[in-house]
Amino acid sequence: MTQLASLSSTLLYVAFVLYLIATAFFAGSIKSKKHTNQTGKNRWATIAITITIIGFVSQLGYFITRWIASGHAPLSNLFEFITFFGMMLIAAFIIIYFIYRAHVLGVFALPIALLIIAYSSMFPRDISPLIPALQSDWLAIHVSTVAAGEAILAISFVAGLIYLLKDVDLAKKGKQTFWLEAVLFSLVIVVGFIAATTTSQITGYESEFSHINTEGNEDVAEYHLPALVIPHQGELVTENRFASPVEMPAIVNASRLNTVIWSIMVGTVLYLLTRLIFRRSISALLQPLVRKVNLNLMDEVGYRSVLIGFPVFTLGGLVFAMIWAQIAWTRFWGWDPKEVWALITWLFYAAFLHLRLSRGWEGNRSAWLAVIGFAIIMFNLVAVNLIIAGLHSYA
Amino acid sequence: MSEITCKCGHVNPEGTELCLSCGRALTTDAEEKKTSDVMRYEGMARRSQTYNGSIIDKVWNFFSSVKVGVWLIVITLSASALGTIFPQVLFISPLEAPEVYYEERYGVAGEIYYILGFHDLYNSWWYLLLIAAIGTSIIIASLDRVIPLYKALKHQRVNRHASFMKRQRIYTEYPLYSSDTFSKIKDGLRNKRYRIREEDGNLLAEKGRFSRWGPYVNHTGLIIFLIGAMLRFVPGMYVDEVMWIREGETMAIPGTDQEYFLKSEGFTVETYDADEDKEVFGATIDRVGAIAKNFQTDAILLKREDGVAGDSSNLVEVEEHPIRVNQPFKFDNFALYQVDFRQGEFRSMSFNLVQKESGDSFGPFEIDLTQPEDEYQLDDDHRVELMGYYPDFSGFENGEPQSPSPVPNNPAFLFKLFSPEHPDGEVAFIAIQQNLEPLGENDYQLSFNGVETRDVSGLTVRKDLTLWILALGGAIFMIGVVQGAYWNHRRVWVKRTEEGGMLVSGHTNKNWFGLRKDLEAAFTNTGLEQPKDQHEQNLNKVSAGGAKEEENRDTTS
Amino acid sequence: MNNRKKKRLIVRITILSVLIAAVVYTLYSTLTEDERMIVKAGDQAPDFVLTDLNGETHRLSDYKGQGVFLNFWGTWCKPCEKEMPYMENQYQAFKDQGVQILAVNVGESEFQVKNFAKKYNLSFPIVRDSQKDVMYSYAIGPLPTTLLINPEGEVVEVVKSGMDEETVASYMEMIKP
């Protein structure tokens, strides 16, 4: 079983590397001069999608072997869920790719999936046994459907981003130019988080603070990055470690805030470095990749993925969620923050569809809505688990 | 204003945009509107817009607007988000007073949150009104649209006016009409599973019309769901009670109208074991410590065959059943859930009577905390009289031992110790780690001999007769949303012109890519180029960075 | 045309009224949720039978024709403790006028209840509801709660707080046959 578990980790690693290679080939495919509209057959693209599929199969292998090793669906903590979400994103991309054959999607969808998988591995990766609340077949059914739904919806974000990169006139300074850059900047911050956390994991940096928690009791906070902010009445107990004098109130999880500050700092440094080296904004840097994109097609891909993803999300995030909640938590709906944010996501995409169907919000506006929708999904995925305490806090 | 007579002679009801017969635009307004906006409801009169007299009509029209509907959705989702900033009052411990809790923990922001009532946002009257408004909007907006849409789609004419054809997004004029090409297109479309109607060499091919009903089906599902949610408030439909039951106890089950009783045979907590359970869990168990594996109450359900409350002489055992997390015990529309527990509640305590000097010990005797006795006879000469029992001893008040609750959290006893030396007894007060001799030094004392504890299960009793309605609503919603999202309504018109040419146009409510593919297939054998997507052409004309087609458009519906 | 307009107006008014009625009902139910489940004034008092400290059984319906002062209490509850002597005093005054007190102890041991009765010299019947059976049938929340039941067996008032002696007297007056 332990062997199976390590095989599982290897397969995930292999998948990650393959996605990375496939991204390069997709980038090559749109540079190819032969195909101006970036669809249809193209040797680079064929290689790229083949590698993507092999990567997907490898990740599927990770999923299955881990399932066998642990005896339950590997969807029980943040690492497992976010990894699966990344895998579903790849699956959704493969499906949409075979419908529309738009290579440019790969150039953006794969890096985002890579980012998500890398992000997931920042959380504890041990195989953990299931607590009683999770011991149900609905774990696999509910969580996988939610992840699939959100992943398909995320494709609309990818399409929307590509649409905007081409559509927004970067020469003009305006709201759209600003916000587009802001979206890309936030992706760089995720890179910052991964970089900071990986560095700390490699160097093994660790420090502990004794502090007073919200209940007024003494507690110990663990830091894996030099403490720029310290907990309420925090005192460093590890020797030779950095501690700033900036103290947080008890309700703030200072250790987590510290990680966020480090991520933003590293992200900002990375961002400024790229700007310094290339002397252009990231939007402008990416724009050549989308120069030949068919806007109409991107709009359609974006809309189509919302249409496909919305029912799947409803099924997993609301219907299955309610069924399981009735069984496990005695009531189908209890206003738990995660539930509320699933409802918000659902209402948002419902508004998206009404605006599009009945009020003609297409193209640029629809693309922006897709970006906002993805932000809501990410908020629910990350922030609600880490910041807002609730029944779903299985870290 | 009344009926509109079209140039073709057809009489249309007031408010119609496109003639029901030939498809001509009837008003200049309709002519200028975007095709997709006019085609959405087939150019039919939407009732809401045609009558605007009384206040009832105004209210009706307000809720009929999709714009209003979208606003309601946006407001509701923003309000819902507000409710997650700080925990809702139902998640904070019932021991905390909310008016202090929010301010103490979250400062001024928390205080404002509480004052505005956001601590119980989802039960507030205004949040309920928002949901009600969305429900109203769904009903009225759907009614207003589905009826005219149904009529329009039912009475479609095959032969449409050239102006109607021309304004479709997919449109091409071919100079030559031949019946050979015509039948090839027809067969091509039929192979793509279009339903074909033909009239004087004109053609209407249609598929997936039922997807147009998707929105109305899913709205029906939502309304059924909301009705189900509302029915919860009808007496008898819904029970939500909590019961605490100790091991070995038999208790009435609240909410069952004194019909059912539960006996707890025992409560178990299991944790994962690094040696017994899977080896791969070892790392996690090392990292976080014990991980719970099972919470279980072994219960026996009893039913009172007859008799009134308080009469438990006719309890009949119905079923023995474990209650576990994720595996509620269901019976007769009720379900019992394992939700909580308290471990190690004192059940009995035993003591020895000890002569201090000699160390001679008498007893032991055991006090069952559920039914303490007045007196415990130890042997012929020694006995202990129980004068007072304080299950949750908290201190003295005016010399009187206090117990602010009936739960044996900290049992204390007042005893009188009788011995040959003291036939009138010595008074001793015993609590955990506390031994008082209030009336002076005694010769005897009680020494603690042992304790027995038991666990208490916290169970939720639930009955919800609305579940099947909610399930029905949910199922209908899912059917409707899939119907609307995974199918498309595609139509292709072929018109033979008087000049001997051929007009081909196509329309779909979404997924133009799919319609183009169908047309590509239908036109492959004709030798003609497939009809063009005018939108696509326009868009390709606008080069990179300049497609600002959205800027000047803000349509109303 | 005019006829159609009229018909439409009627349809719209009907639909809107149904919706408004539904919303009002839901709002009312939500805002008064806590109140609805409990046995309240005007209801027929649910019958029960419990045993007192002397082993005698008391059935509520046997007291038809008398007013019943039904008090739910616990030895640990301060306001209960405070009102017990008042009840005892007034019991002496009213027992010959057809008012009966039934004090229902919720879930405590016979020892505690007996001790308590001895301490305050209580002479009215004290019954024990050890399975919380009767408590649930009256959906009693916090203790003490007192129900005033008239000779017809109908609940006249539900008192959800402690009482002083005057109030106890006035309540007994209220249910006197």
From TrEMBL, chain A:
GO annotation, biological process: cytochrome complex assembly
Gene Ontology cellular component terms for the protein in this record: plasma membrane
InterPro entries recorded: Cyt_c_assembly, Cyt_c_biogenesis_CcsA, Cyt_c_biogenesis_CcsA/CcmC
UniProt key word Transmembrane: yes
Membrane topology value: Multi-pass membrane protein
Top-level taxon: Bacteria
Entry's transmembrane regions: 12-32, 44-69, 81-100, 105-123, 143-165, 177-196, 260-278, 306-328, 340-357, 369-391
PANTHER family, sorted: CYTOCHROME B_B6 PROTEIN-RELATED (PTHR30071:SF1), HEME EXPORTER PROTEIN C (PTHR30071)
Location of the protein in the cell: Membrane
MF term (GO), any: heme binding
Sorted UniProt keywords: Cytochrome c-type biogenesis, Membrane, Transmembrane, Transmembrane helix
The name this protein goes by in its record: C-type cytochrome biogenesis protein CcsB
Domain (Cytochrome c assembly protein): residue spans on this chain: 75-199, 271-392
Pfam families associated with the record: Cytochrom_C_asm
Gene label: ccsB
Keyword hit for Transmembrane helix: yes
UniProtKB/TrEMBL annotation, chain B:
Residue ranges of domain ResB-like in the record: 66-427, 442-519
Keywords: Cytochrome c-type biogenesis, Membrane, Transmembrane, Transmembrane helix
InterPro entries recorded: Cyt_c_bgen_Ccs1/CcsB/ResB, ResB-like_domain
GO biological process, one term: cytochrome complex assembly
Taxonomic source organism: Jeotgalibacillus proteolyticus
Main location: membrane
Localization in the cell: Membrane
GO annotations of cellular component type: membrane
Protein name in UniProt: Cytochrome C biogenesis protein
Stretches with biased composition (Basic and acidic residues): 547-557
Residue ranges, annotated region (Disordered): 527-557
PANTHER family, per the entry: CYTOCHROME C BIOGENESIS PROTEIN CCS1, CHLOROPLASTIC
Transmembrane intervals: 68-92, 125-147, 216-234, 465-487
Membrane topology: Multi-pass membrane protein
Superkingdom of origin: Bacteria
Pfam family, one: ResB
